[in-house]
Design a protein that fits this description.
51% helix, 179 residues, four-stranded antiparallel sheet
Length: 179
């Protein structure tokens, strides 16, 4: 038998409790949705940053490959143009070492009648920053000399430093042979 002490407005209290629970649930759902959207946005930003870094690394690697292919490939008929191209692709310490010696380099190539084919067989970015990268490379070179009966095969391992300027132009500033 029901107690006579129960107030008549008991249904109203249950309704208030239900409304408060619904309001708290709604706030929790809104907060969770906000957090999810924030995390999703941050994840998209991280993916975009990684994609940009990967693209930049590929550009560093490709540029280093292009420069080293030109440097290790020697053609008598296009020697001056090839050396001009290389000089235009380098700067800094490497340019200071290579450019002043270009005449003696061309003279040696002409007098020996050497031809060479250089191929980058592997390349990977070792360190990468927005302004520069170090690219490790394996280069195979075949050298033909009319004074020799057989071509000579050589393999080199080098670290190439590629600088990237504010306008996006890249230049090689260092080539160091790795023993």
């Amino acid at each position: 038998m029901p107690s006579q002490d129960t107030p008549r407005g008991g249904g109203r209290t249950g309704l208030i409790v239900a409304a408060v629970v619904a309001a708290v649930s709604l706030v929790a759902a809104l907060v969770a949705t906000g957090l999810w959207l924030t995390e999703r946005g941050e994840a998209a930003s991280i993916r975009a940053d990684r994609a940009a870094a990967t693209e930049l690394d590929e550009a560093y690697r490709d540029y280093a490959t292009e420069v080293m292919t030109h440097l290790m490939t020697i053609r008598q008929e296009t020697l001056t143009e090839d050396v001009d191209r290389i000089v235009g692709m380098i700067e800094g310490d490497f340019s200071e070492q290579f450019a002043p010696r270009r005449d003696s380099y061309e003279e040696v190539v002409k007098t020996t009648d050497v031809v060479a084919d250089g191929v980058v067989s592997a390349a990977a970015v070792e360190n990468s920053y927005p302004e520069y990268a170090d690219v490790i490379m394996a280069i195979d070179q075949t050298i033909g000399n009319p004074k020799s009966e057989e071509d000579q095969d050589r393999q080199y391992r080098v670290r190439v430093t590629v600088n990237r300027h504010d306008d996006g132009v890249m230049k090689v500033s260092g080539v160091n042979f790795i023993p």
